[in-house]
Write a structure and sequence with these properties.
2-methylcitrate dehydratase, two-stranded antiparallel sheet, 503 residues, 19 helices, 60s Ribosomal Protein L30, Chain: A, alpha+beta, lyase, single chain, 2-methylcitrate dehydratase PrpD
Length: 503
Amino acid sequence: MIEHTVRVHRSEERLARDEQLAWKIAAVATDPVAVTAEVTEMVINRVIDNAGVAAAALARGPVAAAREQALRHAPPAGRAGATVFGLPPETRVSPEWAAWANGVAVRELDFHDTFLAAEYSHPGDNIPPILAAAQHVGLGGRELLRGIATGYEIQVALVRAISLHKHKIDHIAHLGPSAAAGIGTLLGLPTETVYQVVGQALHTTTTTRQSRKGEISSWKAYAPAFAGKIAIEAVDRAMRGQGAPSPIYEGEDGVIAWLLDGPRARYVVGLPGPGEPKLGILDTYTKEHSAEYQSQALIDLARRLGPRLGPDLATARSVVIHTSHHTHHVIGSGANDPQKYDPTASRETLDHSIPYILAVALQDSGWHHERSYAPRRAARPDTVKLWRKITTVEDPDWTRRYHATDAAEKAFGGRVVVTLADGSTVEDEIAVADAHPLGARPFGRSEYVAKFRRLAEGVVPTDEQDRFLAAAVRLPELRPDELGELTLVPDWPLPIGSEGGLF
C-alpha cells in the first residue's frame, strides 16, 4: 500500500498529471493484477446481496419510476444493451439507464453493504453501473470481477481518507470516481483515459448532503444511481477523447480547495502499489436489517434488551443512547431534525432516525424491512410515546472507536441506558452488529443466500431464484452471452411507474 499525500496546488505550480490523485486512481484501475480467491468469493456474495435487496424493492414507487424511465432508452444499434431487474433478460436498455434503474432498486431499501470511516458509503452501489457496462459491450464474468474489485478498492480508499459529510457534501462524490475507475478496469482503458473519466465523474457528482437531511425523499435512493449513470456517461465522453477539469482534486478552484477542507488541507490516501492485489472489498460488511448502518448493532442490542425489560419498557422514563459523533449527529437527536420524531415521516426519514428504530426494535425484539416502516406501525401510540423518550448523546470513546484504524477496535454501536419508572437503570452495550465479520453471527455465503431467499420470497419464483444463484456463483466463468443471467424476473406483473414525465 502506498500512502499518497494530497493537497491544493496553485495553478502556477503546474502539478504534473502523474502526481495527481485522479491519475493515481487511474493507475490502480489499469494495473492488471489478478483478483484473489477471497475477493472473488466476496464479490459473488455482494452480487447476490444486491439482487436480494433489489428483488424486495421491485414494486416500490421509486424503483418502478426508474424502471419506466429506463425502458424509454433503447440501446444503440450494434450494442447489446443491459438488463434491468424485474424485466426479462432479453429486454435491454442503454447501459447508463440500466445503471440508473438497477441502482435505485439496489439502494431503495438501504439494505446492502456498507463501509464507514472518515466518510460513509455503500460500496455495492458500484456493481450496477459496472455490470451494465459489461453486458452492453459483451464482456464476461472475468472482466466484470476485475471491474467490481476496482470499484470497491477506490471507494474504500477514498472513504478512509476524505470526509465529505463534514462539509455537507453527499457521499456519492466518492462513488462517481470509484464506479468510473471500475468501468475503466472492466474495459481495459488506458490510464490517460481513466484519469479523464475519474475527473469528469468527480466534477459532476459533488452534490449537497440535503438529500439525507430533514425531510428525506426518494432521492436518497436515486442519488447513487445518478452517480453510476454519470460514471458511464463520463466513460463514453473520455473514450471519445474529451477531457475533464484538471487537477480536479488539487486545483486551486478544485474540490478540496472550495468544497472540502480548503487551501491548506492535506489528505493521505492509501492505494495499492503496482502488482498489489485489490483487497478493499474484504473490509466492507453487509446489513442484516433494512436500516441505516449505525442502527444495525443497536437493533441487535434491542433484540436482547427488549425481552429483558418486559412490561417495564412501557413506563420507562427515558432511553439514552451513548454513541459516536456520527451516529448522534446524522441519525440521532443531535441532527436537530424534528422529522426524526414525526410519526408521519417518510420511510427514508424513519430509516435515518435511530430513536424510531430503537423504539420499534425494543418493542418487537427485531426488525422487518416492510412491517417496521408501515405508517400504522409508526403511528402506534405506545411506540410514539416511547420514541419521544429516546435521545442520543455523543460519547468520545465511541467516537474514537468509530474512527479507529484497528479492525478489532473499530465499532459502530453504543451503550443504551434505560431509566425505569422507579429511577433504577438498565444498561447494555454492543460494539458491532451480529452480522459484522467480528460480530456474534458473521455473514458467510450461506447467510447471504438465506438473506437473498428471504427477500425474494413471494416476489421471484423459486426456480428463478435457483437460476440466478447458479449463475452468480459461477460469476468468474460466465461467458459474455451468460452475463445477462445476473438479473431477476418476478412471476407477476410489475407496477408501472408514476404517471406523467417528459418521455
